[in-house]
Amino acid sequence: MEFAELIKTPRVDGVVLHRPFMPLVEGTLCLTGHHLILSSRQDNTEELWLLHANIDAIEKRFVGSSGSIIVKCKDLKTIQMDIPGMEECLNVASSIEALSTLDSVSLKYPFFYRPMFEVIEDGWNSFLPEEAFKDLESMTDEWRLSDVNNDFSVCQSYPPLVTVPKDVDDDTLRKAATFRHGGRFPVLSYYHKKNGMVMMRASQPLTGTNGRRCKEDEKLINATLRAGKRGYIIDTRTIAVAQQAKARGGGFELESNYPQWRRIHKTIERHSVLQESLIKLVEACNDQSHSMDRWLSKLEASSWQSHVKEILTTACLAAQCIDREGASVLVHGTEGTDSTLQVTSLAQIILDQSCRTIRGFQALVEREWLQAGHPFRQRCAQSAHSNGKLRGEAPVFLLFLDCVWQILRQFPCSFQFSEGFLVLLWEHAYASQFGTFMGNCAADRTKLKLPQKTVSLWSWVNRPEELERFTNPLYEPNSLVIWPSVAPQSLLLWEGVFLRWNRSSKWLDEAYEEMAHIIEYNKELQTKVNSLRRQLAQLETEEDGPLQTP
Amino acid sequence: MEHMPKVYNVFLVDKAFSRKPLSGTLHLTETHSVFTENASGLPKETWILHSLVCLVERQPPTDTGYPLRVHCKNFQVLQLIIPQETDCHEVHMSVLRLSRPERYEDLYCFSYNPKSDKDESTGRWNFIDVKTDYHRMGVSNQLWHTTSTNHDYRVCETYPIDLYVPKSATLPVIVGSSKFRSRGRFPTLSYYCKETHAAICRSSQPLSGFSARCLEDEQMLEAIMKSNPGSQFMYVVDTRPKLNAMANRAAGKGYENEDNYANIRFQFMGIENIHVMRNSQQKLLEVSELQSPSMTDFLLGLENSGWLKHIRAILLAGVFIAKAVSVKGVSVLVHCSDGWDRTGQVCSVASVLIDPYYRTLRGFMVLIEKDWVSFGHKFSHRCSHIHGDPKEVAPVVDQFLEVVWQLMEQFPSAFEYNERFLISLHHHIYACHYGNFICNSQKERRDERIQEQTHSIWPHFWENKSEFMNPFYKPDHCQSQGVLWPNTALYSFKFWRGLYNRFDKGVHPRQSVLDCLMAIKEENQQLEEELILHQKKIATLERERGTATYKRNSIVTSTDIWGQSDADLDLLCGSIRSFPLISFGQQRGSDGTALVRPRDTRKGSDLDLSANSDQESGVADLNCRLSSGSESLPSEDIMKNPDLVEAIYSVA
User: Fold this and answer.
1) Can you point out the beta strands (E) in B372-435?
2) Which of B516, B419, B134 is nearest to A414 (CA)?
């Protein structure tokens, strides 16, 4: 085992642990290959089990001969451990640092984790593309499932199976793929049952400076249009950014080559800008100093809320094109793995009630994020405390969840899941015992044999006892399209994530429980009243008839 | 009004309903401007109550006509576009005149009659009794008693007659102290904490100048301190910023010198004056009225208004006092300059924090009556009920209501009343339907014979209390009991969308948890009643039959029927079983009792074409107003009383 080499001091006694909202604990610190464990060895105090993978950054402080390690987690929690002995402290710190930044994928915890629960349904098989296609087939016969990418040679970041127009053959797909960044040719993202309009997603076309075109690409996307209909291309970048992309071989669809399409540019920021935004936001939230009086300016300066607004606005635009304009839509940015997915997945939440159920939302995450090749491993390698050189980290998925939370706040009865479910997904995307969010794409997951070697998050979540925890008591299926407001007054800071460790949620939780109780009581009363009605009806009928002896 | 009752072909732009202007007729009456839409069937009417209008301004003419922008005190903003300039001018002048009555008699409350039943409405002025509240606090007792010093408002015109002071404070001490205080507002009891025997007292600033002293005033404070036997000192809280208080010394006023008063600890609170607050709210309103603002416009606008910092300062002062009184057991004297603005805010915030009673509906009414109405908060000046000095206008009571709202956000189960109650109260403080908030002091109200001629709002609120109840409230929750200790970090203070964007339909959540839970709670109540009814019926039926064998099935003991299989139940009562979660609207129980599900609270909204003109302008014109509800108009008027004419309401 390689871990032993990294753990210089596996055990230290007399460590004092500081955690938010919890009393101090003095106990023994143990380092294992994947966990930092602190236990007081008393029955009544909770042990700390912190996954090394959850550690974002550590700081060391020394006073006299003892030291403190401040651990900043990816879930934004900060804990402090006071360790007696300078050497122990240094050893622990360097061990944590090494263990939390292990590069080797095969050493990650999900490969070692064995479930302590009974797997009723293997989550790795819960959302197969074949199953999703069956649903599509029941609505339309205009699409087919292509296995053109079954060895990941056409597009490295696509899954083996993709849905494409029936009339377009695999050869055309292969050629179209060469015209799109990373081979991400246009594929079906969503079929709007109400009017048969579709949302496609892709990456940018490789037009370059000299305006290269590709007949197959044009054919492919035109095949998604009904006769005489026009479609919309939503480019998540500003026109200026899209223009600049030409110099690097990228570009955008020219009107002359795509006369049936109208292109709209939006302003969703990318990678490092978003990561900076997260860092600034978390800094502002944790600022304990007196300069706190510029809180709103700092919130503004982080631009986080602006990103939320921009992403939601673009998603609403896509949904509006489909539902109100009755037009099909193609969404892309540059790589088609970030802002594109934010837009396509949020548009589905707005349009399709099935995405607002717990299972439907899992399917959406599976389809539009995991299968669609959002590079989770890269994006979620570090969280808000990352410093130094970034290697593609960005809170793209967190922004998506934040947007979902905003819609949930505005339509609190239309989602089967509660806020806690969104927080859970966010936590597991950054650090998890499950294999679901490992790797960058389907090819990675196949190569790592994740379905065989790790447990799926869905296997755990989809057990009745867990589902119950994440169920929104107010839920009432709502088949309507839900249009969120994107006015700044309507968009709130997601306190459940960003202020979670700054202020206690005790009072809010108490109110939530009261709500659940009222609804539970309602159901109980209905059952009682109904059986009484039934009994009464029976008695009244018997009144007229002969007496029965039971 | 005879000369210009009606203007035709007017356009109304009302953000609450539609982005498209409505065309119709404007009709001016003494109390309202009424806009009636040109439409067959049931034309929409919009009523603008003149006493709610705070500003009418002409705007540059457009193609359609001459626009008038009407700003209301409840933060509604409307635009009327009038085809002819002369008409526009006349409407402008008329609304200006009608919205600024010169005399109290011209206010709406003198003609407004909420109910035709006069017998019931007489005598309702004693519905809320401040004396009872002092009794509830445990006053009078061995240390505190009521004084007749201010009988007939002899000592202080702006104070109420009934006042509570330390027993040890003799009449000469009280009178002497009152002479040393601005406008004679001597220290008197606002809140008494039974558990710790500490008191919150209030007054105006002392006339200390740079060196003046007053033995009686010093004795008065000592009497207050000594009325709390457990404590060796007391706090004197000056709610003003130190600089303001110092500046007052030049005018012969100022603050207490710690050297002259035995055992006091002096503390400034830094709450700004009414002029700063007025400007701050103005800036806040500009932000809330921005058309399609960016996140940056909004956040920086909010920051620059300084509003939330002022709200925080008021809450911090309240927390300071609550801690002194309830934890340290130390009495506090609170004052500002005159002791009727910041002092009232801070005393009442501290009371809400300390005493769960003020978090009940009735308790809150008492608190407003006590700390605001009776202690002479100048409602008519601050709310500009009649034409007066614009420099006297200030959102002092708005801020208090907002502090309570901020607390509700942090403690959702601690208050018996809901946000709607605060908004409705805010509305009525300005609207002048009822007499409670007319005039600037108790004496003035007596002289104007307000109680004889107008109605009190409190019975009205009480009768409609089901609208104002907080479904999350549970008296035995720990946040409903004991003292509230709010988080006062700046991030805990939020923009009050419900009040400032109240009429901006687009920005509110499409589904309201409040509505939904209120409906379920109401239904629970109906079901409980039905349950008892059925049990009785069944018991009667069984008794009639008198068959012993049926006793086994008698309702009280029949636990088995709760265990009926779902299939059985579905067969018999399918529609009823499913109604809370699947279908909405009115449902009728099998026994004929109407089970009413108030409105469609849980269903969402689809884009409403009538309220959204984005369609015509193409998708690129996508902005904040993407969304709109389908049928649930915002419940502007939450009163059930059909006679009640809200400032502006619309009949769809």
Assistant:
1) none
2) B516
| CA distances for A274 relative to A130, A157, A339, B44, angstroms | 34, 22, 11, 47
Of B535, B569, B602, nearest to A476 by CB-CB distance is: B602
The torsion angles phi and psi of B80, rounded to 5 degrees, stand at: -110, 130
Q: What is the tens place of the pLDDT at every residue in A88-108? A: 999 999 999 999 988 888 899
Q: Give the distance from residue A473's alpha carbon to the nearest chain B alpha carbon, in angstroms.
A: 10
Q: Which residues of B touch A300 (CB under 8 A)?
A: 295-296, 299-300, 303
Q: Give the long-range contacts of residues A461-466, CB within 8 A, separation 24 or more.
A: A461/A123, A461/A358, A461/A362, A461/A424, A462/A120, A462/A121, A462/A123, A462/A126, A462/A359, A462/A362, A463/A117, A463/A118, A463/A120
In chain A, the residue whose alpha carbon lies closest to the alpha carbon of B575 is A530
In the β-sheet with A66-73, what is the strand arrangement from edge to edge? Answer: A48-51, A35-39, A22-31, A11-19, A78-83, A66-73, A55-63
* φ/ψ of residue B463, rounded to 5: -65, -30
Q: What is the largest CA-CA distance in chain B?
A: 94
> How many other CB atoms sit within 10 Å of the CB of residue A235?
25
What residues contact residue A375 under an 8 Å CB cut-off, 6+ apart? Answer: A157, A337, A392, A440, A441
Among B489, B523, B555, the residue with its CB nearest the CB of A292 is B489
Asked if A325 lies within 8 A of B619 by C-beta distance, the reply is yes
CA of A461: how far to CAs of A51, A436, B130, in Å? 19, 12, 56
pTM of the model: 0.90
pLDDT, tens only, A162-214: 999 999 999 999 999 999 999 999 999 999 999 999 999 999 999 999 999 99
A351 and A192 Cβ atoms separated by less than 8 Å: yes
- Quote the distance between the C-alpha of residue A325 and its chain's center: 29
- Predicted confidence (pLDDT) per residue in B73-126, tens digit: 999 999 999 999 999 999 999 999 999 899 999 898 988 887 645 555 554 898
* Cβ pair A522:B523 closer than 8 A: yes
With beta carbons less than 8 A apart as the criterion, state whether B391 and B367 touch.
no
Written as six digits, the tokens of B433 are 């339907």
Tokens at A392, concatenated: 């593609």
| Nearest CB to B516; choose among A293, A474, A514 | A474
- Tell me whether residue A133 is exposed, middle or buried, using C-beta atoms within 10 angstroms of its C-beta: 0 to 12, 13 to 18, 19 or more: middle
Q: Do A325 and B296 touch (CB under 8 A)?
A: no
Q: How far A416 CA sits from the closest chain B CA (Å)?
A: 12
Active site residue B336: yes
Write down the catalytic residue from B72, B88, B156, B336.
Answer: B336
Closest CA of chain B from A308, distance in Å: 10
Question: For residue B45, which phi and psi values (nearest 5 degrees)?
Answer: -115, 140
Bridge partners, residue B28, by sequence: B33
Is the Cβ pair B624, A507 closer than 8 Å? no
Candidate from A295, A297, A309 with C-beta closest to B491 = A295
